[in-house]
Design goal:
About 25% of the residues lie in helices and about 35% in strands. It is of the alpha+beta class. The protein has 2 domains: about 150 residues, no CATH class; about 70 residues.
Length: about 250
């Protein structure tokens, strides 16, 4: 999942460098030192509680538009995904477990070879776009450790570091808590991104009908990444009143 995020971010930050007209070294921060502690684990749990991680577990379906490019419907309850793209011309529905599904282009069924390619593209978009939706709850994923980091502005942040597993062990995300307990920003040290510790805000917090909180606005320098039309419910039927995955 993190590798797809970084591929997206690499292009984003490359554009950011051009906009800012400065070099990598001028923007980079050193990776903080530290060791995992029980206190860091407690601070990470506090962040998860602040976004109501328990309510997120009850969120069986969620839909959102990512950066004006993709509209997602994620059936978390049954591990299904629908992606609408190309201004609504392309619709892909498939199982995230089997990677089998259907695709239509301007209302016509896509042939099998094209469907397979569209499913792979939809999966790549889901991997990246869902990570921006709610990564706070992933602080205790397998292979992670949590480290308390003193912040230059005062207080402490929680660095979640991937030390085992995945394609790029060593990736680190420093969460910076806001006054309401929810994260207000993070800093990233990711191998493919050429800027160490570049900061992105986590703002525009919105509460789903299930009670879970998700961030919809991420400012990175002069650029802003926005998630719109974010909605969640206990099931797809409750969310939409219909089941678009019938027959899959």
């Amino acid at each position: 999942m993190r590798s797809k995020l970084k591929l997206f971010a690499l292009g984003l930050f490359g554009a950011l460098l051009i906009v800012l007209g400065v070099g990598r070294a001028a923007l980079s921060r050193p990776l903080p030192d530290g060791a995992p502690t029980a206190e860091a684990d407690a601070a990470a749990r506090a962040l998860i509680a602040a976004v109501d991680g328990e309510a997120w577990e009850r969120t069986g379906a969620v839909t959102w538009n990512f950066a004006g490019r993709h509209t997602h419907l994620w059936d978390r309850q049954r591990t299904m995904h629908q992606l609408v793209s190309d201004g609504g011309d392309t619709v892909v529905r498939y199982s995230l477990t089997t990677m089998k599904g259907v695709a239509t282009i301007r209302g016509e069924a896509a042939p099998p070879e094209k469907t397979e390619k569209l499913i792979q593209s939809a999966y790549a978009a889901w991997i990246n776009d869902s990570f921006w939706l709610n990564p706070v709850v992933k602080a205790f994923d397998e292979g992670t450790v949590r480290i308390l980091v003193p912040l230059e502005e005062g207080g402490q942040g929680v660095m979640v570091q991937y030390r085992q597993g995945g394609l790029t062990p060593g990736d680190s995300y420093l969460w910076i808590p806001g006054p309401d307990g929810r994260p207000k920003a993070w800093r990233m040290w990711v191998s493919i991104i050429p800027i160490g510790g570049l900061e992105a805000t986590w703002a525009g917090w919105t509460q789903l009908s299930t009670g879970a909180w998700v961030s919809t606005e991420h400012k990175i320098g002069p650029m802003t990444l926005t998630l719109t039309d974010v909605k969640g419910a206990a099931s797809v039927m409750e969310l939409l009143g219909e089941d678009p995955f019938v027959g899959l």
